[in-house]
Amino acid sequence: xxxxxxxxxxxxxxxxxxxxxxxxxxxxxxxxxxxxxxxxxxxxxxxxxxxxxxxxxxxxxxxxxxxxxxxxxxxxxxxxxxxxxxxxxxxxxxxxxxxxxxxxxxxxxxxxxxxxxxxxxxxxxxxxxxxxxxxxxxxxxxxxxxxxxxxxxxxxxxxxxxxxxxxxxxxxxxxxxxxxxxxxxxxxxxxxxxxxxxxxxxxxxxxxxxxxxxxxxxxxxxxxxxxxxxxxxxxxxxxxxxxxxxxxxxxxxxxxxxxxxxxxxxxxxxxxxxxxxxxxxxxxxxxxxxxxxxxxxxxxxxxxxxxxxxxxxxxxxxxxxxxxxxxxxxxxxxxxxx
Amino acid sequence: xxxxxxxxxxxxxxxxxxxxxxxxxxxxxxxxxxxxxxxxxxxxxxxxxxxxxxxxxxxxxxxxxxxxxxxxxxxxxxxxxxxxxxxxxxxxxxxxxxxxxxxxxxxxxxxxxxxxxxxxxxxxxxxxxxxxxxxxxxxxxxxxxxxxxxxxxxxxxxxxxxxxxxxxxxxxxxxxxxxxxxxxxxxxxxxxxxxxxxxxxxxxxxxxxxxxxxxxxxxxxxxxxxxxxxxxxxxxxxxxxxxxxxxxxxxxxxxxxxxxxxxxxxxxxxxxxxxxxxxxxxxxxxxxxxxxxxxxxxxxxxxxxxxxxxxxxxxxxxxxxxxxxxxxxxxxxxxxxx
Lengths: 338, 338
What we know:
The structure is a homodimer. Chain A is α/β, with parallel strands linked by helices. The first copy, chain A, has 13 helices and twelve strands. In chain A, the strands form two sheets. Chain A has a six-stranded mixed β-sheet with strand order 3-2-1-4-5-6, sandwiched between helices. In chain A, strands 8-10-9-7-11-12 form a six-stranded mixed β-sheet. In chain A, strand 9 (264-273) and strand 10 form a beta hairpin.
């Protein structure tokens, strides 16, 4: 299968390494032989319709901080859109950073790829929170496969679990700890009794929180994931602005201590139901599967037959998200009966 | 799709009710119209190649405690094996009770069904722990689909998660709380400080533990599930006798209390690795996703890319297991491209 990779930052590189590492595994277990025919980053493109040498591509990207220096045969300096339209390929990985305002440039990349008849895999939340239905329709109309497992839960197969593994069930509600940074902060506050600002600074020093942590601590990242789950699992047509959001900035150690004394943990929980979408701090009984600590993510599906099913794991990290990208690739390969 | 149901006890009836309840859902979402053409229990058979009236079948079974009184057109008094061989059908549900000694009568039912070219779905652990490889090979040889999701984890899609949702991963180890009865007993012992015998009696009165609880408390049921997971997920050829088993009968409240003070819970854990299979009481850190309470089940997969992924939910109960049976039915329907 011929792949185009748009975006070759931390995630693109981790995925490239996974492709190398899993070459034998994919061939033996699934008869799958992926060939990266193009990689594009903000500085340029590496193109070889015969298949790029992924090892060399990774070395180039790490040394020059761009794939554009890759000694390829193809015409240089092509933009992502030119590559998507001109390079013969079966599937496009859209791995550029999330932009929740208008979904760009990911949104246009995905649309162009679908218009060109290419399957699409992405972990980019931007295009999904602004145009989920539009992209879903376009994929169907063009007869291409569209997967986005990595956009929610990182390595934790949240969407697939609900759509495929609980296929006989009606999902009534989804509740989740969907942001590792805020979960880390709340866990540390509860263990140390320290105030929010102190723990946030510690998390930033450890690289768990970003320099500008706004999207995480204000609950926006969780709201993005709730929007995607509402569309993908509950089948409702929701956008980011439909989610009522409260963040964790105002939570004080005393509140956490009181909750603890009563047998509860304070967690930033996203909730998706057919008639309401919200994100906010909630009390979760200690011992409940959602009461996970550290940077873990956990999502509970409330269903009719299976009752509550919860899945837990590491929701972020390039290597973990590669697990989702690879799973999507195998899933499309299998769906196509290749 | 024409279905034969072998076994029509609590599970068979719950599944029958799910089929009625989900008729519209299956048609709308999957274009699936299941038709039960035969149901067999230990007293006889109800057969109608045009499709039994499932509502009437359920009423008959509840009133007469057998399906044999169903006013069907077909020849009466046929055995399960005769029905499997003679009645035109696409798929056989094998839902008789588990027999871990020799897998019978389920094992012969499944083999005959496969020989007759029928797909098979079962939640019966017996045939799987004595002849997993043989059945897996026979299904492939006969070109039929074989699913057994309900045999491990009840409503919790443990096997599907590992095989499909973590498809890009190598699973190194599986650790699980796989028996609701023992988890209930250990949870109560930890909360009340009460001795094993007292809590076991309480669990029996509540219907959570069986009159003869040996298979649960000696760890045999957990060992069965570890055997199935080892075969299905790790791909090794294991039988029940390969699992080293220690039960929970000798655990004393003092041991649980000491563990608690050190921040641990005592859980009956099954572990499957490529070079060892075992079941026994283990210490699990409080806050770890495996440290679930009550009758919950939880399974952690240790993988290369996704690291640890845990799934949690209700591992037993006829309605919950129906969720797995229905999921397998949809999965086969989808795999066949019907």
